[in-house]
Design goal:
This protein is of the alpha/beta class. It has two domains: 4-182, Cobalamin-binding domain (Rossmann fold); 212-446, Aldolase class I (TIM Barrel). It is built from 16 helices and 16 strands. A five-stranded parallel β-sheet has the order 3-1-6-7-8, sandwiched between helices. A three-stranded antiparallel β-sheet has the order 2-5-4.
């Protein structure tokens, strides 16, 4: 007998939030797996910018773009006590709580609720959603997974109010939990080593499809000291590029979507294995696509041929992870890229047709013991190469190689309070690279 399972994507609580192609892909993949095992699946998305009940409230609609990015609905709320020292407005991003509550009341017959979590410092939105669920559906077990639940497992167990906390990949754990609690033996389980054995995500449950996320791999071959990728995937695994093209063609036929967002950590690594055959296949099938990469791309792989293929295939605005031009810092953080590789990649991209403003280069700032001059020099180097520098504030992530260094140097209690992981606080700033220096540099860059 199948079970009725609610998938919940909770609110974001933060000083600022913007929808850079955010979708709860892991949760939607679990929905596909549950549906494959004959369970009924429903989605409740607290971040839905098109929720019909919000339109009836007479609220100003958030500005959205055809590409799928844009603003969320927003309500100013009291900041948590740990953040009272900051004068900025603290907000709930997404639908109104009363709308979420009203929707929950329609699901009194639910058997299980699965909730995801994103940034560690967004946990207040998770907690609010759980409190409302417990008030309206106290009989329904809540299972919490995702990034916060994995990286701050003990914190989630102690404070979240969820009945079960899942750390890491959820496929096997969810099916085992359903079997243990309901006696439901699963009929299908994907092959761990074969990413193409997973059922498609339940994208059909999304209210309005502007874009769809695609993942061609899990994990990353690099082990950068600031990055959490190895904590979620110990190995770098890839799909078959033809299977990826099949999926994109399927969803384009089903929904008419043309904007696709790659969630990969290493999309361009060994391009002949994935991105080259994938884009060739998409062009062969005459699919109309525009591509977005919020995670940033590896620029080490960019050759003349790849740059031309990216430009011709719909990667019109691209972002690369460079982090710093300081040689010693590059080695310390993992040796992912060198200065000459950036210079060469930008040259190829410009020859292929990209303009300076279209080539965004992420630079990490606010890392432990980082000096202002390092960031200033990095900005100047990116400009010299003919690309657009973009500051990315460092967020300390539990379990990464840089974590202990961050704990030692931060003036905030990042060890015990995930709210202080918030990159907008510059949690590892110092007297040399102060918030004032950062703000001045960012203003200067925005004026470029």
């Amino acid at each position: 007998m199948s079970k009725k399972i609610l998938l919940v994507n909770p609110w974001i609580h933060d000083f600022a939030a913007y929808d850079f192609w955010i979708k709860p892909l892991g949760l939607l993949y679990l929905g596909g797996l549950l549906r494959q095992n004959n369970h009924q699946v429903h989605l409740m998305d607290c971040l839905d910018p098109y929720h019909p009940a919000m339109a009836r409230q007479g609220l100003k609609k958030p500005r959205r773009y055809a590409s799928g990015s844009g603003k969320f609905y927003r309500q100013t709320i009291p900041a948590p006590p740990a953040l009272k020292m900051f004068s900025r407005n603290y907000c709930r991003y997404g639908i109104l709580p009363e709308i979420f509550a009203a929707e929950l009341k329609k699901h009194q017959d639910a058997d299980l609720i699965l909730m995801t979590s994103m940034m560690t410092y967004w946990y207040p939105g998770v907690f609010e959603a759980i409190r409302i669920i417990k008030d309206i559906l106290p009989q329904v077990p809540v299972v919490l997974g995702g990034k916060y639940a994995t990286l701050c497992y003990d914190h989630a167990v102690k404070f979240s109010g969820a009945d079960y906390i899942i750390s890491g990949a959820g496929e096997r754990q969810i099916l085992d939990l359903i079997e243990k609690n309901f006696g439901e033996n699963h009929s299908f389980m994907p092959e761990v080593s074969d990413l193409d054995s997973h059922p498609y995500p339940v994208f059909d449950l999304i209210q309005k499809i502007e874009h769809l996320p695609v993942i061609t791999s899990r994990g990353c071959p690099y082990r950068c000291s600031y990055c959490a990728s190895p904590l979620f995937n110990s190995k770098f695994r890839r799909r078959n590029p033809i299977k990826v093209a099949d999926e994109m063609e399927y969803w384009q036929n089903q929904s008419g979507v043309t904007h696709f967002c790659f969630y990969d950590d290493a999309l361009l690594v060994n391009p002949e294995e994935m991105i080259v055959p994938l884009l060739q296949e998409i062009r062969k099938r005459k699919l109309t696509c525009r591509f977005h990469c919020p995670n940033g791309l590896h620029l080490r792989e960019v050759t003349k041929e790849l740059a031309e293929l990216l430009f011709a295939s719909g990667f019109k605005t691209i972002r690369f992870g460079f982090e710093t031009s300081d040689f010693n810092r590059q080695i310390q953080t993992g040796g992912k890229v060198k200065n000459e590789e950036l210079r060469q990649a930008v040259r190829h991209l410009k020859n292929a047709g990209y303009q300076t403003r279209e080539i965004g280069i992420y630079l990490l700032c606010g890392m432990p013991d980082q000096k202002a001059q390092e960031v200033i020099d990095s900005v100047a180097f990116v400009q010299e190469c003919g690309a657009r520098p973009m500051l990315a504030e460092y967020s300390p992530i539990p379990g990464t190689k840089m974590w202990e260094e961050a704990v030692a140097c931060s003036s905030f209690d990042i060890l015990n309070e995930p709210l202080y992981h918030n990159n907008s606080l510059l949690p590892c700033r110092n007297n040399d690279f102060s918030f004032e220096v950062y703000a001045g540099l960012k203003k200067k860059i925005q004026g470029i």
